[in-house]
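We close this part of the discussion by returning to an individual protein. In the encoding step, the backbone of a single protein was reduced to a row of integers, each denoting a local shape. The sequence in question and its structure tokens are set out directly beneath this paragraph.
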Amino acid sequence: MTAFAFLSNTSFMKAPTGDAGKPLAVAGVAWDGSVTNRPGARFGPRAIREASHMLCDGVHPHFDTSPDGRLTDAGDLALPNTSLQAMRAAMMPQVARLIRQHHVAWLGGDHSITLPLLRAYREWLGRPLAVIHFDAHCDTWRDHFGEPSGHGTWVYEAMQEGLVIKECFIQLGIRSSGVREAREYVRSQGGTIHTARDLRGLERPDELMRLLAPWRDRLGAHGGPPLYLSLDIDCLDPAFAPGTGTPEPGGMTTNQVLSVLEQIADLPLVGMDCVEVSPPYDHAELSSYAAACFVWTYLCGRIAQGA
């Protein structure tokens, strides 16, 4: 049967849905009950999927491979939308099942979803993870505007719970306002921070990888632990991603993010999330297209490494 590009298909890259036999999967976590500014990230998974249809045959220009035939879309997780605790409780068993079947890229949703994801991976792997975290915000607050947890506390909670290897945690693009204790928390715990200011003017892959070399050495010194990637779309400057709840001027470029994603593909990545895409505030679907491209690049990198 002839496939027409204009026909509606809401799966990521028009992948088949619910195929447990595929090695790669995307799954949506359509939750935004923890945002501190503008809601709308619950619509992110659908917008990212629709934007992914622009990728056509999906052959990546750097990795020269495509997810076609190896990817399934598991749909959105079935979650309550009125309680963070109830959402996370409902999320955990669904995540546990999927990560045992597939290498999964998770489509958010706000950043509060990353904590239960890390809990599930930590339980499955039986060891803490290294993390590479793209974000404008440090997400190291000890409370969420008086609440115990939210989308700005997950890094602090993950470190307190022993879900991550502190020395193998790296943040890229940080630039939002905040007290020094929060901004420097990851570094104070032995991790690495490269602020957006640190990254200014570094565009070429070789420049960025020289900057990341000490962190890669740390991964090696810790025996090459499993690595999780969490990508908040607001790591990008609002010029590249206006569709997010808490935009921060002075951010990364899509070039920079893609260069890092391409250059870390050789590391032992076990999963990723792309969060905080808020379509109601997007312009010309720029944020959704960037997110779809990042997820596609990540998946192609896994294929290039034999996933």
Observations:
- Residues 277 and 290 are 10 Å apart (CA to CA).
- The chain has one domain: 25-304.
